Amino acid sequence: MIEPSIAKALAMKEGLSQVQLRKLQPVILEFDCQDLIKTLHGLSHPAWNICSIVEEILLTGRDLGLVEYSFTPCSSNFLAQNIAKWEACFNIYGILDRAVNMDYPTRPVCAKIEIRARPD
């Protein structure tokens, strides 16, 4: 079992990978881990177990340029929370492919992050 803080940091890192891959800029990454968001904004130091992941997130974000990190409480992102519970139930991880029938998962799923274009 992976520690939650590590899983959340890895989910953010994967979100940035998808931003790069899909060339989505500008972008806002909304996340339900307030400690991680504070760390990315420079308001706190990362926990020892996610230091290297946070460094990678910050470097990738700087390389991309137009990336914003935003805190969103779990209660306001019902869909992501339910998909995350589904993911945990079936021990699946990765990227959510909307083309896959959710009744019969054949590809990995990850919905702990939301990627969307930032309004101009």
Automatic annotation (TrEMBL):
One of the Pfam families matching this protein, by short name: RVT_3
Gene Ontology molecular functions: nucleic acid binding; RNA-DNA hybrid ribonuclease activity
Source organism (scientific name): Trema orientale
InterPro entries in UniProt: RNase_H-like_dom_plant (IPR044730), RNaseH_domain (IPR002156)
Span of domain RNase H type-1: 3-86
Protein name: RNase H type-1 domain-containing protein
CDD domains with a match to the protein in the record: RNase_H_like
